[in-house]
Amino acid sequence: MNRLLSLAVSAVVIVGLAACTTEQAGRVKPLSDEAKRELAAKGMRVDAPIFVRIFKQEAELEVWKDMGGGQLALFKTYPICAWSGNLGPKQREGDRQAPEGFYVIAPSQLNPNSQFHLAFNLGYPNAYDRSFGRTGDYLMVHGDCSSRGCYAMTNPQIEEIYALAVEAFRGGQERFAVHAFPFRMHEVNMAKFASHQWIDFWRNIKQGYDLFEATGRLPSVGVQNRRYVFAPGSQSVAATAFASGSGLTMIYASN
Asked: Which pLDDT belongs to residue 247?
């Protein structure tokens, strides 16, 4: 990222935090010394880019950190305090389903004023969701351990996750990816759910899961013909892989 863009991203984060009332500002805590020691013990920079994975059935949220050159390593796994609905994607406003799929979070999606302590907006519906006419908004990862279609954490957990996001944005990350899955997509689980109504969708998103598992790097993700499409590695690889397709909408291209 060039210096001008980096300054602009930092300004968005700082302005967003400054906009809190006195009471709300107390929610946004700096990254704790303990978390900094945990990062240092794993050789991770405080301001390195982050990546988030969510698994519904296991009720786990993972935060990964970039170790350099796009290679990611797991920092911590947090138990999800509450999520609502069933396994399967969100389809419509009011169904109280927590989303599944591939999302990206920009600084403007951080909400220090959330009624659920702290939050970041997943950006649902994304291009894939919109291709099916799916509706709903304000789908979050937030605190207060109460869910009506969101992924809810305890307040100390969301404070740490939020602080990790703020540090990554301050370090120059423009946006971070969130991959939300119904379960860990190994073959045992896929066989267990082979007759489920959403198995075709899950086989599709498993392609992105498998690419990350195999490489430890974010795949590029797009939407084409109402399916997710993936390419490993860099934006140039993605451009080559997707070049022959029409009607492609990129969700993000990994660098």
From this structure: 84
